[in-house]
Amino acid sequence: MKIIAVVSAKGGVGKSTMAANLAAALHNEGRPVLAVDLDPQNALHHHFEVAAGQECDAVSEGIAHPDQDWKAIGISSSTGVLVLPHGGVDEDQRRAFELQLANDPQWLAHKLSDLQLVEGAIVVIDTPPGPSLYLQQALAVANIALVVSLSDAASYTALPLIEGLIKTYAAKRHDFIGPAYLINQFDSSLQLSKDITQIMLAQLGKQVIGVVHRDQSISEALAYNRNVMEYSPNGRGCFDVMNCAKTLLGRLAADTRIEQPA
């Protein structure tokens, strides 16, 4: 299996939305996909419609609850993506879960290995923004760390933070292909958005897998538990997301290490 950790330096960049849509797009390309919600907000499952005939409780059943059988709590979505929710937790449960993550740095690696996923499967992991134990666990297993960033000043200036975390927790592993960057919500009507996008493209080069234009249908799809491919298959957002997914598949297939800029 190949693992993509979807990360960001700051919140509000559309990270979970991109994680869900890319998972669906990768499945549309013919790959088995598992989407894992490692973000305590427990929001990833809202982007997927539950497959007909399946019962699910994404609040009381989730990976943050101890002794859960991951094979039993997976939610089969109508798109074909299997979703593992984080699960709703109170403050005591959150602290206990984080203590478990701190005491076992290989917790996620062991859990994914135990699933014995089919050959060719791709795991997409959604993480909370910024430094966290959740991010450390995801970067410890990721083949690609996909950084979602807006084309604005705040997101651009926050990039060194996430780049430093990737270097610390992933860059030394031989199976880590490297970071990839997705510029989200690009607005061609705003000069600043165009300028920052050009700066990021020049600075990051081939590490950028694509630019997703601002498209209202991407956020509207969430209201219907859909991905943008289902909700607006002919829209610009759908086109951009599909192109990003294809580029990711190419990176995974090539398995060629791409170094971060110094």
Automatic annotation (TrEMBL):
Domain of life of the source: Bacteria
Name of one Pfam family that matches: CBP_BcsQ
Gene coding for it: yhjQ
InterPro entries (UniProt xref): Cellulose_synthase_operon_BcsQ, DNA_Partitioning_ATPase, P-loop_NTPase
Protein name per its UniProtKB record: Cellulose synthase operon protein YhjQ
NCBIfam families: cellulose_yhjQ
PANTHER family in the record: P-LOOP CONTAINING NUCLEOSIDE TRIPHOSPHATE HYDROLASE, PARA FAMILY PROTEIN CT_582
